[in-house]
Amino acid sequence: MRVLGVDPGLTRCGVGVVDGAPGKPLRLVSVGVIRTSPDDDIGTRLVELERGIEELIEQTRPDAVAVERVFSQHNVSTVMGTAQAGAIAIACGARRGLPVALHTPSEAKAAVTGSGRADKLQVTTMVTRLLRLDAPPKPADAADALALAICHVWRGGAQARLQAARTRATGPAHDMRQGRTR
Amino acid sequence: MRVLGVDPGLTRCGVGVVDGAPGKPLRLVSVGVIRTSPDDDIGTRLVELERGIEELIEQTRPDAVAVERVFSQHNVSTVMGTAQAGAIAIACGARRGLPVALHTPSEAKAAVTGSGRADKLQVTTMVTRLLRLDAPPKPADAADALALAICHVWRGGAQARLQAARTRATGPAHDMRQGRTR
Description:
alpha/beta, Nucleotidyltransferase, domain 5, 5-stranded mixed beta sheet, 6 helices, globular, DNA recombination (chains A, B), hydrolase (chains A, B), endonuclease (chains A, B), RNaseH_sf (chains A, B), cytoplasm (chains A, B)
C-alpha cells in the first residue's frame, strides 16, 4: 500500500509518500515541501499548491491520501490557510477516486511514537528510524507528512487484518455481499 | 462585466451571476445553491461542489469571481467547512485565469444597502430591487452570493473609472508601463 501524507499549509505544505503493509518494513518513496509565496494572491497560491500535489500524485501513484485534520488553533488566519490548503489536497485525491482519510495530529504522533503528545523531535526521530533513513528527513517540516502516511498505512493495515480475519471466519462470499472488500 | 459571486458553504453554497457595468442597470444571469450531503465524506463533497461551480462557469462564462472572505465565527466546524468550500471556489476561478476577489460580508452588505450591518431581509430586498426582479431571489440564501457579485461589479466599476481617469490624465502608454490595464 502506497500512501501520500499531506500536512497542509499555504506557505509550507509538507508531503510524504510511504510504501508499507502490515508486518512489512516501511519504505520512503518521496518527501518534500510545496511552498507558495505569501506575496501572491490566494488564487495563485491554491492553484500552485494544487499543481504540486497533482505532479506528486502523477509521479508516485499512491493508493490513498492521508491529510491532517485541521482543528481550531490559536491563530485564526493560520487555521484558514490550513483549511484552504487541506481542501485542495483532499479534492486532488478525491477527484481521482483515491480514498482520502483525515487523521488528527495526535493520531499521527501516537502512531509513530506511541504518544499523542510527542514533540517534534520525537516524531522526526521515530520517522527516521521507522523508514530506516540515514539522516532525519529534510526539510524537517515534512516529517509530519511522513508520520501521517505511516499512521494511515498502519491503520489500513489493522483494518486489513481485521478484514482478513472476518473473511477467514465467514468466507469471502459473505464478505463480498457486505461490500467491504478492497 | 459578468461576475460570479460565491457565498461558500459545504452544505449550501450560494452562487449568483450578475451582468453589470458602471452607470448601467444590473442584470441577473443565474442564481442558485449548490448542495452537498453531510452524510458524504469530505472528499466527495468538495469534488461535487467543484463540479457544480465548474458547470456554472462553463454555462455563464463570468469575467471575474467574487468569493466571500471567511472570518473566524462562533462555530469552528462551520468556519472549517466555509474555508474549505471557499478554497474550492477560489481555485476554480484561478485555474481558469479569472481574477478572483475576496469581499467581506460587510463590504457586500454595504454595497447593496449602504450599511455593513444590514440584516438578511434588507440585503434580499435591495438585491431584488437592484436586479429588478419580480420576486426575491430563490433560494433566499443565494441573495448573499448576488450581493457579493454586485459588490464586485461596483468596486470593479469604481476601479475602472479611476483607471480611465488616470489614463486620460497620463496617456495610455504610461498606463501600460504600469501593467495596470486589463
